[in-house]
Amino acid sequence: MTEFDFIQKYLKNQQQDHQIVLGIGDDAAIVRPRSGFDLCFSSDMLLKNRHFFENITPENLAWKVLAVNISDMAAMGAEPKWVLLSAGLPELAEDWLHRFCNSFFGLLQRFGISLIGGDTTRGDLVFNVTIIGELPQGKALRRDAAKVGDDIWVSGKIGLAASALNCLLKQCDLSPEVFQQCETELLRPMPRVALGQAILDLAHAAQDISDGLAQDIGHILTASNVGAEIWAEQVPTLPELKESLSHEQWLKYTLAGGDDYELVFTAPENCREALQAASQQSDTPITRIGKITDSGRLKVVNSVSDDVEITLTSLGFDHFV
Ligand code: ADP
Ligand code: MG
Does the beta carbon of 27 lie inside 6 Å of ligand 1? Predict the structure, then answer.
């Protein structure tokens, strides 16, 4: 199969929306934003042996490549609309491409997103997705908007993906059932788009957790020039994990593990009820795990009434450390 055949057969003429003026096939795509909306752009790259193991299935790979990008739109409170996919592929193997594309377009369809362009070259399995979303003008959930006194919330359960990864790396032991639950989160994270949009008028700052809860909260603190207190025992987890892991491991995978693709956000206290309604409306559990403070730094303690600070050896993942 040639590069042209691949584009024609697999990429062109998939789901389109009426805002696409020009899709795949020209030098560039054209989209027309709705009036009253801002466009929101992000891009995330995934490399073999860095972001995924070589033996990953094409279905899981396509999911992850796309889900991590959709998650960035969720974190801004944006509605994901269009993606560009750049792929380096060692060969154009039909069976592999067929499986990859089925999963890729399946997830796109779930969120009403269209593929509008990209690039294909021979390479050592590398993917870059650029995603574009729409946001009601001026409403984005930015990292620099946290205020002293805000509650800190997270969605879903944290630490499952990191537990699965560490189990694969033989750093911990999990029963097959617990491992399987955790591995699903590692391989098939579900971006929290509905929640992001539901909290647009309530939350101050937000971001998605990709590199570790502590580190990612740190980005909000730095951007907003505030501090925070986090209550480790409040961080939502899979109960079985607390039994399977040492307390130290549990803390590390939960607070500094990463790959969760849940949202962490801050909101004023008087929004608690409205946030619970947003959580129900978006069918996404949320948990209050701390407060924004004026200390200028992140303090982790076991529980609200505890004053003994927990020191973490690492706050999260950094590609260059
Ligand atoms: P150019 O030579 O201008 O870079 P290409 O031949 O690379 O154009 O691509 C032709 C068309 O196919 C373009 O519209 C491009 O956006 C699209 N395309 C190429 N690769 C991909 C891909 N992996 N995913 C989506 N669209 C793609
Ligand atoms: Mg090109």
Answer: yes
